[in-house]
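For concreteness, we quote verbatim a single protein encoded this way:
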Amino acid sequence: MRLEQKVAIVTGAGRGIGRAIALAYAREGAGVLVNYAHSEEDAGAVVQEILHAGGRAIAVHADIGNVDQHDALIDAALQKFGRLDILVNNAGIEVHERVLEPKLETWERTIGVNLKGAYFLSCRAAAVMRKTGGGKIINISSVHDVEPLRDRAIYSISKAGMLMMVKSLALELAEFNINVNAISPGAILTDMNRQHLNDPARRARLLGKIPANRIGEPQDISGAAILLASAESDYITGTTIYVDGGLLLL
């Protein structure tokens, strides 16, 4: 098992990509803190699935957009597992909004979770990892860090900011043996986009843009997430892996 004796925090891990990563890490031997902001039931189900398989996990509520709640999240991992080796910044918000009809609250909430929250939680986690010899920080971004998405400008801007956040943190944290990278998924079927992708016409148009000719599943992200959390990626930092079935090729 590639993550045996390691401890990971996965934000927004009650469903979708976060859930898939949490389960994959547990299978690889990591103790997992399953963070959630809304559904205690979803997070609890992930924890129970891990426990039933013989793994280690707890569910902890925290709104990643509220920096004041970050310490409690880190402390919960340390109290339960005694250390912190991996942080996955997966929690994210996407709001449909035209640039000609902007709302300040959309900007503040989206940037607050997707960028500000990820940045400050990473800094807090890095301070802990430094004391124990290093760690891995993995940010779940999007192909829209380089390709704008219509009617979701703020979301795209937040992910573009994450692209530079990864590079900046990687530059400063490399001397402490802390690797910082990102995974940018393409079209992955999650609760966030399920309704949109269930429309046959929209689905057909999207498939026409994906050389792999299929919509991704949350599990498609797990392999890259395991790689970037393991010792196999010790010489990889400041980079982004695009897991998109070739979407950006066209």
User: Anything to note?
Assistant: The CA atoms of residues 207 and 213 lie 5 Å apart. Strands lie at 7-10, 31-36, 56-61, 86-89, 135-140, 178-185, 240-243. The radius of gyration is 17 Å. The mean pLDDT is 97.
